Structures are given as C-alpha cells and as structure tokens.
Amino acid sequence: MQNRKLHAPEQPAGPGLRLRADVPQGDRWDLSKLYASDGGWEKDLERYRALAEKIPSFKGTLGQGAEALAQALGFVRDLGMLEDRLGAYAVLRESEDQ
C-alpha cells in the first residue's frame, strides 16, 4: 500500500480556480466532522491497517456457531465503517483544490 500524505497544493489546479485558502470559510467543506486534522486521519489509517491484519484470524471460524459468526460480522461492519470514513475524508481532502 502506498504511504502518501494528504496535502494542499501550492498552486491552483487550473485556470479560474482558487486555492482553498482563497475561498471564504463559509464556502469550504467542513471535514472536521470526519477528522479534526490530517493527523487524526493518519492515526485511523494505522488503526485500519492493524485491524485488517486480523482478517485471516476468522478463517475457518464462521461455522463454529452463532457467536463466532456474530463476532466476524461485527468486525467486518466496524472495519468497513472505518474504511468508509477514511476514504471519504481522503477523497474530499485531496479534491479541495482540484
């Protein structure tokens, strides 16, 4: 997996476009509902990577009963929610000045 930091460009992405810093605050996306800073996103990305390494531990356990299945489904649900949040922030953050 590529280890790429989120960043704001120093120049507008095209003619007629402004940098985020030049857009009035009220017209900007408020990504703080997802993460207060890029650092928070990076912490969750590391958490996601650590959790994803646990996926193989469920192999061969799903047929061991309702509790095992419920644990696996809960894990996949939580991992997916974290993935969605990480992805939404990254896409919006990357496209701020595009």
Counting DSSP H or I runs of 4 or more residues, the number of helices is 2
The helicity comes to: 40-55%
Question: What letter string, H or E per element, gives the SSE order?
Answer: HH
Overall, the morphology is elongated
Distance between the termini: 24 Å
- Percent strand equals under 5%
* Unreliable stretches: none
Count of extended strands = 0
Structural class: mainly alpha
Query: Cα-atom Rg, whole angstroms?
Result: 18 Å
What number is the mean pLDDT? 87
Provide an overview of this structure:
Helices cover about 45% and strands about 0% of the residues. Helix 1 packs antiparallel against helix 2. The two termini are about 25 Å apart. It is an all-alpha fold. It has helices at about 40-50, 65-95. The relative contact order is 0.18. The radius of gyration is 18 Å and the shape is elongated.
Strands, helices and their partners?
Elements: H1 38-52, H2 66-94
